[in-house]
Amino acid sequence: MGVKYYTHFISQESGAVDYEEYRGVVELCGRPQRVNGEREIAQVLARSFDLQEEDIQVLQWQQLH
Q1: What is the pLDDT of residues 12-27, one digit of tens each?
Q2: Residue 15: its pLDDT value, please?
Q3: Which pLDDT band, with edges at 50, 70 and 90, does 58 fall under?
Q4: 48 CB-near residues (< 8 Å, 6+ apart)
Q5: 8 A C-beta contact, residue 7 and residue 27
Q6: What is the mean pLDDT of the chain?
Q7: Do the beta carbons of residue 24 and residue 45 sit within 8 Å?
Q8: What Å distances lie between residue 44 and 11, 17, 23, 29, 32, CA to CA?
Q9: Residue 32: pLDDT above 60?
Q10: In this model, does residue 1 exceed pLDDT 70?
Q11: What is the DSSP string of 15-61?
């Protein structure tokens, strides 16, 4: 079982006018330690959603207990 986070973030590719907004619970499997900081959660989300880290703006994130 992985670590679960509530996340709310926006993704917008460079130069694009439109953006996508996501919110919900994500489970980070195979990652026993906590994610520390907004940039680290953006890196994990970018890999998971096949995006570039700089295209993600994290609005809210919180580890669930």
Answers
A1: 877 667 888 999 998 8
A2: 67
A3: very high
A4: 26
A5: no
A6: 83
A7: no
A8: 13, 24, 15, 11, 14
A9: no
A10: no
A11: T-S--EEEEEEEEETT--SPP-SHHHHHHHHHHHHT--GGGEEEEEE
Mean pLDDT along residues 35-47: 84
Structure tokens belonging to residue 1: 């079982």
Taking the C-alpha atoms of residue 43 and residue 17, their distance in angstroms, rounded to an integer, is 22
Residues in the chain: 65
Which domains, from first to last, does the chain contain? 3-63 (3.10.20)
**Tokens 């996501």 sit at which residue?**
22
Distance (Å, rounded) from C-alpha 56 to C-alpha 38?
10
Cβ-based neighbours of 19, under 8 Å, separated by 6 or more: 10, 11, 12
